[in-house]
Amino acid sequence: MLSTTRRTTLGLGLAALARPALAQSGVELVVHYPMPAFFKDVMEKVATEFQEANPGIRIRYPAPSPNYEEGVQTVLRQAVAGGLPDVSFQGLNRLRVLTERRLPVDLTPWLEKDGGPDARGWSAPVRGLARFGGIQAGLAFAASNPVVYYNLNLVRRAGGDPDNLPTKWDDLLALSGRIAALGEGISGMHFRWAGDDWMFSALLYGYGGRMLTEDEKDIAFNGPEGQAAMRLLDRMVKEGKMQPLTVDAALQAFYAGKLGIFSGTTAYIGSMLRSIGPGVELRTTKMPVIDAEKGRLPTGGNAAVMLTKDPARQEAAWKFIAFAAGPRGQSIMTQGTGYVPSNTLAPTDERYLGAFYRENPLFRPAMEQLPISQPWYAFPGTNGVRITDTIVNNLARVVEQRATPEAALADMAQEVKRLLPR
User: Fold this and answer.
1) Who contacts 414 (Cβ-Cβ below 8 Å, separation ≥6)?
2) Domains 25-144+299-375 and 146-297+380-419 in one fold
3) In the chain, what percentage of residues exceed pLDDT 70?
4) CA–CA separation, 10 and 17 (whole Å)
5) How far is residue 247's CA from residue 157's CA, in Å, rounded to a whole number?
6) Domain layout of the chain by residue ranges
7) Is 151 helix (H, G, I), strand (E, B) or coil?
């Protein structure tokens, strides 16, 4: 269990992108990315350093998408209407729908250059995060898994031990209930249930479950593992006294010292360090163990996808993708967000993140969970976004105590089954 009482200087800032006019033969790459709250500063710094190293290539960012769901919808619309970007950073669980429409350029030939992918830090598991339909649809840029954030000031007030924080959900819920009992507008915990199905899959995988059957023709999340996951969500409300807050409201409460425990992506570390008030002593831990043998966690994040079909532009696009997903680009990304690097050279090399991980223990739990991480599931067919909405809507019914875990899961299963390809 790891802590820091000082703020980490991330040193990213807003980087100016203004550069001299390119030569007539220069290339301007249009690069789309999502979630500017996480990535704006990072992407500007990546572009600045890339352009310095490649003066014949300029990066232009159109308006970013607020989330992965709108990001994939934007690209799907552009594929029909025209105006596709040269490169797009897409959520790992949305690559499948792009691949089924044959939009990504297969990166396999590019990866085989310059000694091959392993020598450049792109291991088989990393490549597997963005491999669909028999092609390398993208190259992982930012990877994440869920961690738990604690306000140690509230933990102490509730009688908890900062040096022995919960490793089981039963103990976490009990601690949350005691924090909530402090009063003064203080809430015990928040589990990021809204937005997408990622954190639900963390509970489902934690019990050893899966979303669909192996042949993907039927649902599997309504079995014993899914039932246990929904009951645990219900216990968070009843025993942990979790309020039905939005993610943004929960984060603001945590920053202000009014929330004791926040469970969500490791990518929040950067914004946590920039935003927490002086009364918050921050600590991160791994997610509580559910099933020590079968339990797994989902890998979230996004991958760089090449969309341009122009051979000359593809050369420039690959250079940008390779830089962003290479050790230097991954160093910029990790230090600015909290995401786990998707390049094996970055975490151990002293030129990149070797010293960083030693000096910044908040970032370590996510790295330590990599051995039990598996890909974020991508539903087949054209209804992936609707399926996600269905899952989230039924999770909300449990969190808001409008339905029992059993009823919500039954309705979720029925609707998702209807939305699967026939």
Assistant:
1) none
2) yes
3) 94
4) 19
5) 24
6) 25-144+299-375, 146-297+380-419
7) strand
Q: Please, are residues 179 and 155 in contact by the beta-carbon 8 Å criterion? A: yes
H-helix or E-strand spanning residue 177: helix 169-180
Cβ contacts of 267 within 8 Å, gap of 6 or more: 38, 142, 144, 300, 301, 337, 338, 339
Which portions of the chain are predicted below pLDDT 70?
1-25
Q: Report CA Rg, the chain.
A: 21
The class level of CATH for 146-297+380-419 reads alpha beta
CB 186 within 8 A of CB 260: yes
CATH 3.40.190.10 fits 25-144+299-375, yes or no: yes
Indicate the angle between helix axes 311-324 and 327-337, nearest 10 degrees: 50
Residues 6+ apart with CB under 8 A from 78: 84, 85
Q: pLDDT per residue over 98-156, tens digit each?
A: 999 999 999 999 999 989 999 999 999 999 999 998 999 999 999 999 999 999 999 99
- Token code pair at residue 348: 């151990």
108 vs 105: CA distance, rounded Å: 9
Going by their DSSP bridges, the two strands 27-32 and 87-91 should be labelled as: parallel
Residue that has been written with the tokens 């998408």 in this structure: 65
Buried (b) or exposed (e) across 288-317, using 16+ Cβ within 10 A? bebeeeebbbbbbbbbbbbbbeeeebbebb
| CA pair distance 120, 295, nearest whole angstrom | 31
Residue-wise DSSP of 213-276? -TTSSSB-TTSHHHHHHHHHHHHHHHTT------HHHHHHHHHTT-EEEEEEEGGGHHHHHHH-
- Using DSSP, state whether 54 is helix, strand or coil: coil
